Amino acid sequence: MYIKKLLGVPPLLYFSCSPARVTPNPSTPYLAEGYCRSLNFPERLKSCYRSSSLMNLNLRSILLVTTVGVVCYIVNYSFLSFMLTNYPWVAKAFFGKGSWWLDQPIYVKVPYVLVIAPLYEELIHRRIVMQFFVTRGETELGMLISSITFALHHYLFGWGWFKAVDMFFVGLVFGAIYIEYRFTGSWLCHTANNAMAAAFMIS
């Protein structure tokens, strides 16, 4: 269940601002001709399609998405550490052949993990794949498909199937952030997540 549903905002409000591409549901009186109409919702929820500009995220939003990214990494790291410690077979299933950047020097690893990977992965899997479904009113399906492509992306880059499954659930987190905070939010969340990994590389 994604963030806006937790806030109790009707699902059609998330994507109904796509001009002419989403047919309004007649049963929802606040929608007409594909545009959101104002009710007594907070001002920040009236616009479904927020700009990708960082300026449209306030400090509280930035802290929230970065915190989600950090917590996601900590939870994920703790789970994987437990699995790798107690079940030796997980190592092969997780690392697979190993992604290309694992054997690179630190001055290649860190920029890739911290800057390049979050940017192009969010562009592909959230901004392109997920947004394709969001604009058609299939938000939940978009979260699912984009998380699958996100998992397959890592598998094709050399990681094992266990890592791919792990990335599927991480992709769901980034997808939930994308629905609420658009591309900038999911990118910041992803960057915060990868920053933790980069910190471990340096230490």
Would you write up a description of this structure?
- The structure is a single chain.
- This protein is mainly alpha-helical and 203 residues long.
- The chain has two domains: 1-49, no CATH class; 52-202, no CATH class.
- 65% of the residues lie in helices and 2% in strands.
- The chain is built from seven helices and two strands, in the order ααββααααα.
- The chain has helices at residues 3-6, 12-15, 59-86, 89-95, 106-134, 139-156, 161-202, and strands spanning 31-32, 35-36.
- A two-stranded antiparallel ribbon has the order 1-2.
- α4 (89-95) crosses α7, α5 runs antiparallel to α6 (139-156) and α5 (106-134) packs across α7.
- The longest helix is centred in the C-terminal third of the chain and has 42 residues, at 161-202.
- Rg, rounded, reads 18 Å
- Between the first and last Cα atoms, what is the distance in angstroms? 36 Å
* H-E string: HHEEHHHHH
Shape: globular
Number of strands: 2
- Unreliable runs, pLDDT <50, ≥5 residues? 1-52
Describe the biggest sheet?
A: 2 strands, antiparallel
**Numbering strands along the chain, what is their spatial order in the largest sheet?**
1-2
What is the count of distinct domains? 2
Structural class: mainly alpha
Strand content: under 5%
Please estimate the helix content: 55-70%
Number of helices: 7
Q: What does the average pLDDT come to?
A: 80
